């Protein structure tokens, strides 16, 4: 059995499809399945069973002899949520529990960290584990991910193979349920279809012009290819960046969405909401040498190719991966 937590969500459901495509069907999907909004993400996919998030640790203990690999992708990911107790319970303590079970029973583990751990980038974006204690995330979500990374590195006992992946700005099919947290590409597509224009945030930073805030946008198909690679690699444990390695502007992103739709470019700028203005990252870019040093063989999608595939093959067709 292969475990995927967060299996009804964005990246998790795409990983289920990837595993199906590679001939893996004995999959255990873990999530909070009462959220009907996400059900379409695993419709038509092959798997053994579904396990509710709250009972999964107990289930894992009871069924550990059948488990070959654990992908722990489930988390509370809302960067606008400021109730730290929620993140302590769902992100930090829950992941510690899964880690300890994997240690006890010799199970390999890949878990989702986040580029939100880097904060404003004061200490750069290198996945150098010695710098992790220095990082200053901008919100409780980023804190919860960084706190677990620090905890994992401090443990004397670890799974025989483990990897924490700092996901940068992932976009692609199956993210429709994420609301405000969905990618700018998703929102651009829907705004263009509705109004013929896209509103981007103004810059409130003197070093960046409007729309030239930069992010490392990574296509979800690249993310799941890396996850699949690590399932077979199973050595060189540690914490790794997972981005494209190339920062691009929001203007690039929106412009390519218009082009993929064959629509004239019409971009307006609006003030960044005040509740996130002082916590806003103006630049992120993953250093990818560490992951590539493992022998990962594939080139990543360019922003142009990723947006075109997403818009033409999924958003325009109301299709799922």
TrEMBL record:
NADP(+) binds at residues 10-11, 31-32, 38, 53, 73-77, 145, 170, 178. Keywords: Carbohydrate metabolism, Isomerase, NADP. Contains a large N-terminal NADP-binding domain, and a smaller C-terminal substrate-binding domain. It holds the Pfam family Epimerase. Its cofactor is NADP(+). GO terms for molecular function: ADP-glyceromanno-heptose 6-epimerase activity; NADP binding. The gene is hldD. This is ADP-L-glycero-D-manno-heptose-6-epimerase. Pathway: Nucleotide-sugar biosynthesis; ADP-L-glycero-beta-D-manno-heptose biosynthesis; ADP-L-glycero-beta-D-manno-heptose from D-glycero-beta-D-manno-heptose 7-phosphate: step 4/4. One of its GO terms (biological process) is carbohydrate metabolic process.
């Amino acid at each position: 059995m292969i475990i995927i937590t967060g299996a009804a969500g964005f990246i998790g459901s795409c990983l289920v499809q990837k595993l199906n495509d590679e001939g893996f069907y004995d999959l255990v999907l873990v999530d909070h399945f009462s959220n009907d909004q996400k059900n379409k993400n695993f419709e038509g996919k092959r798997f053994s069973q579904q396990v509710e998030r709250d009972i999964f640790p107990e289930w894992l203990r009871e069924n550990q002899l059948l488990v070959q690999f654990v992908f722990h992708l489930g988390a509370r990911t809302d960067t606008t949520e400021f109730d730290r107790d929620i993140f302590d319970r769902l992100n930090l303590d829950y992941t510690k529990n899964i880690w300890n079970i994997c240690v006890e029973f010799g199970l390999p583990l890949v878990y989702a960290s986040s580029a939100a751990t880097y904060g404003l980038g004061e200490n750069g974006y290198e996945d150098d584990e010695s710098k992790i204690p220095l990082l200053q995330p901008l919100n409780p979500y980023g804190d919860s991910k960084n706190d677990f990374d620090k905890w994992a590195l401090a443990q004397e006992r670890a799974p025989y193979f483990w990897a924490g992946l700092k996901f940068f700005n992932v976009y692609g099919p199956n993210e429709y349920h994420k609301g405000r947290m969905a990618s700018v590409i998703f929102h651009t597509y829907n705004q263009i279809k509705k109004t013929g224009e896209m509103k981007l945030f103004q810059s409130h930073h003197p070093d960046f012009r409007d729309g030239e805030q930069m992010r490392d946008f990574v296509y979800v198909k690249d993310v799941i290819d890396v996850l699949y690679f690590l399932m077979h690699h199973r050595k060189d444990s540690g914490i790794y960046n997972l981005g494209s390695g190339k920062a691009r502007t929001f203007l690039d992103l929106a412009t390519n969405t218009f082009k993929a739709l064959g629509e004239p470019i019409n971009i307006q700028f609006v003030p960044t909401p005040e509740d996130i203005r002082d916590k806003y990252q103006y630049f992120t870019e993953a250093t990818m040498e560490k992951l590539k040093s493992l022998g990962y063989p594939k080139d990543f999608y360019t922003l142009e190719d990723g947006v075109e595939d997403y818009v033409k093959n999924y958003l325009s067709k109301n299709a799922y991966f």
